Amino acid sequence: MARASATVDLHCHILPGIDDGARDLEDSVAMARQGEADGIREICATPHIRHDHDVRIHELPERLDALSRAIERAGCRTRVLPGGEVAASALGGLDDAELHTVSLGGTGRWILLEPAPGPLDDALDEAVERLRALGFRALIAHPERHLAPDLVQRLARLARAGALVQATAAFFCREGTREGMLALAESGVIHVLGSDAHSSRAGRPVALTPALGVLATVQRLAPHLEWIARTAPEAIARGQELTPPF
What we know:
CATH superfamily: Metal-dependent hydrolases
Strand order of the largest sheet: 3-5-6-7-8-9
Order of helices and strands: EHEEHEEHEHEHEHEHH
Shape: globular
Number of strands: 9
Oligomer: single chain
Number of domains: 1
């Protein structure tokens, strides 16, 4: 099988000086270059939308435009798309227009939804249902942070309710976390990858291809690698409907 590569990073804190992500414009441009080197053509800028970060949603389009111009001036071909990482606990304070602004790709369809810390609970199911009632679909962020005996069961239930699940790519490539990530993947409750990168200077890189190489070893997912790497992320960024093939 040819090595799969991704074209869209759905989870990246690339906007500078706004949350715990990129510190400055130089850092953001370097993150875009990392993505370009990995074959990523589009990055969804997903600043935290939650109570401990003063992210003003009405400012995001202007901030995104400024970053896009800087990336273009730098000669980098990777594009930055709208988005946000919306905490389930903050969902009730957002109106439809704000949700549209922070939807992935700015299409008004998919919301990157951050569960509350700790094991997943019924509040996440309620958040997914609330989004569904408003015409949105949820992409659940980084399930590996919420380990519990019922994690797979809860993720499967959320998927049956129309949500998809995004795992953090770097954890498939680290010795201490690879085994657990592969177990989640084998359970069929991971649908797409995201970098969840916060800086070019430290931490997770803007890169998805190495993790896809690890996913290729998962028997259940290997036949669907192209869907995971390209079909699903591109559809999400364009606001299209998706039904997982596994």
